[in-house]
From TrEMBL:
Main location as per UniProt: secreted
An example Gene Ontology CC term for this record: extracellular region
Natural source organism: Chiloscyllium punctatum
Domain of life: Eukaryota
InterPro entries the UniProt entry points to: C1q_dom, Cerebellin_Synaptic_Org, Tumour_necrosis_fac-like_dom
Signal peptide: 1-20
Domain C1q: 50-181
Compartment(s): Secreted
Protein name, as recorded: C1q domain-containing protein
Keyword Signal found: yes
Pfam families (alphabetical): C1q
Lineage, uppermost ranks: Eukaryota, Metazoa, Chordata, Craniata, Vertebrata
Amino acid sequence: MKVIWLFSILCHFSCHSVSSQNCSWASEAVVVVIGGCILPGLTPAKLLFPDVPRIIFHAKVSDGVNPSGERRLVYDAVIVNKGSAYNSTTGVFTAPLAGTYLFTYSLLGGPTSEVRLVKNEEDLSYIHTILSTGEAQTGSMSVILTLESGDQIWVKLIEGNTWSGRGALNFQGILLEARLE
């Protein structure tokens, strides 16, 4: 029988019993024991699903690039792209695996602005602003989707103006659960 021990969990419980101890180091310390062999740094997820890639991306529109008019938004400044599923040239995320994904996107829009999350040409959700001239408003949306391999997700500006300063326009996604067949 294989036994997995997570040292950080043990420390978590012992530290809460003595309030003066500092166990901030424990969040970094993961030790896995299998059949008596110590494997430091190997997480349970890597043991249980060694062949499942980590699909995570976070991109933003570069500062000073303020998209307007009806078009797909291209988040050209990539911060993270594990699994290389997000294309910073087209602004499209293509699901490499079937499964459940979480996406978030944001808008810093002017008087009347709207962006929509799109899956394979189908509008799924939207963020909009209705303000007085000279005003701006930030909004964000999170969506959990079941995707098939090859499904495409992107954000489309429907109307209005956006501002991208200081990372105001973001698009992120993460594979929560792969459907392995």
